[in-house]
Amino acid sequence: MPTESPTAELGATASDFALPATDGKTWTLDTLKGENGLVIVFMCNHCPYVKAAMPNLIRDARELNDIGINVAGINSNDATVYTDDAFDRMIAVAEEWNLPFPYLHDATQEIARAYGAVCTPECFGFDRDMRLRYRGRIDASRKEALPNAHRDLFEAMRAIAEQREAPTEQCPALGCSIKWKP
């Protein structure tokens, strides 16, 4: 049964963190943010919703980067139960997909809890002042990619980069629940 993200408290400030990534670096909110903002995508390796969304997420991440918005993926799943989400598998997935963004490991799950993340893939879009302006889906794809799906994340973040308001109607993310530790 898929999990849907709740509505967001738009305007909330991004919670800081320092997390290791598949590129061997430790990233913080400050080192990740772009000139016009940042998108944090809670994702994982095993989720069929993430796998289906990956080509569109990669496309959008590249295009968002061109307008000064960086993207970062965070895996917060319990890898002791879901071994496909272990850090070594994250490295393999990042290489396999040639991810154009850092893929971070939230082993303690503190960051997912701080953001209130509930599912994968779930996107949190922040403006240049690190205020939440978008929370929801990449697009309408589910377990299969929809090639002509409306680009919810990209269009919202482009509007934010152009210093317009984010859309008042935002579509929730839908995917696998985050696998919490007991």
UniProtKB/TrEMBL annotation:
<dbReference type="GO" id="GO:0016209">
    <property type="term" value="F:antioxidant activity"/>
</dbReference>
<dbReference type="InterPro" id="IPR013766">
    <property type="entry name" value="Thioredoxin_domain"/>
</dbReference>
<dbReference type="InterPro" id="IPR047262">
    <property type="entry name" value="PRX-like1"/>
</dbReference>
<dbReference type="Pfam" id="PF00578">
    <property type="entry name" value="AhpC-TSA"/>
</dbReference>
<feature type="domain" description="Thioredoxin">
    <location>
        <begin position="8"/>
        <end position="165"/>
    </location>
</feature>
<protein>
    <submittedName>
        <fullName>Thiol-disulfide oxidoreductase</fullName>
    </submittedName>
</protein>
<dbReference type="GO" id="GO:0016491">
    <property type="term" value="F:oxidoreductase activity"/>
</dbReference>
<dbReference type="InterPro" id="IPR036249">
    <property type="entry name" value="Thioredoxin-like_sf"/>
</dbReference>
<dbReference type="InterPro" id="IPR000866">
    <property type="entry name" value="AhpC/TSA"/>
</dbReference>
